[in-house]
Design a protein that fits this description.
Shape: globular
CATH architecture of the largest domain: Sandwich
Structural class: mainly beta
Radius of gyration: 18 Å
Distance between the termini: 47 Å
Oligomer: single chain
């Protein structure tokens, strides 16, 4: 779906799979729905409804209808490939059949904006899980996976797209979780702090740019920098068979969102060096945004007790 070169896409998919597999060990395997069973809706202590669902190759085990309002979307990945769940609120008058019919002509994420509004969502590697908190407006939605397979075919073209109806929000709405840090997405930069304290951290991610954007957080090995990460993603040399895991791990994300949309995503930060990166493709050049400068570094420091 993204329009950068096949060679770059192959490198990205391979590295993404390895990084998400490393990050998966930090996920909570006991989370509701993570065993691939029936989707469940529970409530956190903060009373935010949690909609848990499972992604496999190539479908979602997810409810067909949920209540609107502030919602925690919790996706586990029971498949063998990376998956995400981009929630698209369809424009008035656009049916799910219209949406799936238009997908044949989608060459980049930006093409979806003529059909609906991308309100973000979670993503995870095989065996992993991730969460985002979004205020869902009532309406008709499509949920789809934009990750490509090894043949560069986006998963939605393999059937990984589902209809979702969001009903009116409950009269009593919970308070949103307190954001520890706000990250603003622009063309093509992150407006974010240079340092953060270690510990569980809730990121508020807001798209202020005219284009679609996302925030992916990567923990970097000691001595490995954000510039090194970009160089690795652009390298035409495949890693040697005995290279071991990549020198970074993807630990959190709020996937593609339209202008003005926002999402909250919890990330557990340990002391060290990190990068924020956007993989969304530029509709004009086809280059992923990190090539256009949308990558940033930050340091997490252990606080004195």
């Amino acid at each position: 779906m993204r329009t950068y070169s096949k060679k770059l896409l192959f490198i990205f998919v391979a590295l993404l799979a390895a990084a998400l597999a490393v990050a998966a060990v930090a996920c909570d395997d006991d989370e509701d729905g993570a065993d691939g069973g029936e989707p469940t809706a529970t409530a956190t202590p903060a009373e935010i409804p949690v909609v848990s669902f499972n992604a496999t190759d190539y479908e979602y085990d997810a409810p067909a209808s949920i209540a609107g309002g502030l919602t925690q979307l919790s996706m586990s990945n029971g498949g063998s490939e990376d998956h995400n769940a981009v929630f698209v609120r369809l424009n008035d008058g656009v049916t799910f059949g219209d949406f799936t019919g238009a997908l044949a002509d989608v060459a980049a994420e930006a093409d979806l904006e003529g059909i609906g509004t991308l309100v973000s969502g979670p993503g995870a590697g095989p065996g992993g899980a991730s969460d985002v908190v979004i205020d869902l407006a009532a309406g008709s939605y499509a949920v789809l996976c934009t990750v490509p397979d090894a043949e560069f075919v986006p998963h939605f073209a393999l059937g990984m797209v589902q209809e979702l109806e969001v009903t009116e929000a409950r009269a009593e709405q919970p308070e949103p979780p307190k954001a520890d840090v706000t990250v603003r997405l622009n063309d093509f930069a992150f407006d974010a702090p240079d340092t953060l304290p270690a510990g569980p951290t809730t990121f508020e991610v807001v798209n202020d740019g005219p284009q679609l954007h996302e925030m992916v957080v990567a923990a970097l090995d000691e001595g490995f920098t954000a510039d090194d990460l970009v160089a690795l993603l652009l390298s035409t040399e495949p890693p040697p068979p005995d290279a071991g895991p990549p020198p970074f791990a993807l630990i959190g994300a709020a996937v593609t969102m339209s202008t003005g949309e926002s999402a909250l995503t919890p990330v557990d930060l340990e002391a060290g060096n990190y990068a924020m990166i956007c993989f969304v493709g530029d509709p004009d050049s086809g280059a992923p945004h990190f090539i256009l400068g949308m990558v940033d570094s930050f340091t997490v420091e252990q606080q004195d007790t």
